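Possible race condition, two jobs.
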Amino acid sequence: MKTIITLILSLIMLKGCSQKDIQDTTITYVATTRGFYQKITIKNQEISINKNRNDEGLGETRKIADNDWNELVNLFSKIDLENFSSYEGPTKKRQYDGAAFANITIHYQDKDYENASFDHGYPPVEIQDFVNKVVDLSKNDKE
């Protein structure tokens, strides 16, 4: 019984650390081409969406629902940040204007992790679920 309680408390503590770590993390996703621009910034359970490349501000900002936030935290915890920059997208449509250029930057524990450019809508397999969740949150109007 003590073992079970210890295990449960350990899991709760680990989850708490993940929540705290991501609270201090900034996720920035940018997709751009000649006629399209989208910048998504996530920090402290808030999302900002800017669709105007000439506007340096954050654009529309809203709170992320708790269930979406928990899912994002879970997906974030699965990312190998040390290899983050080496992940490549599965397609090269951006090279002939078939898709917007996209990249994602994660500022975590005073260090920036940036991925190589990939096609908007076709993220690297290793971070596909995470990137898709970030983009989906930008389309989501619920709180």
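Job #2 (started ~2 s after job #1):
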Amino acid sequence: MFLHNIGVTESAKMCIPTIGIVDTNCNPNLVTYPVPGNDDSPVSIELYCKLFREAIRRGKEYQKKMMETETTT
């Protein structure tokens, strides 16, 4: 996250929520939703990407189901 500090700072100024993998060398207060973990390991990053992708998929599925329910009632 250190490398992307400008993006995090600008997001905070514009009230854009952020999610970030925060290692021990970063300040978690800069991120809206900090995820503690190792941001230097490719295996860790792969796991986080897999989990984020699954969460996004589930969210879209839930949203679609809610839209279908809303149109049928």
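The radius of gyration is 16 Å.
Logs attached separately.
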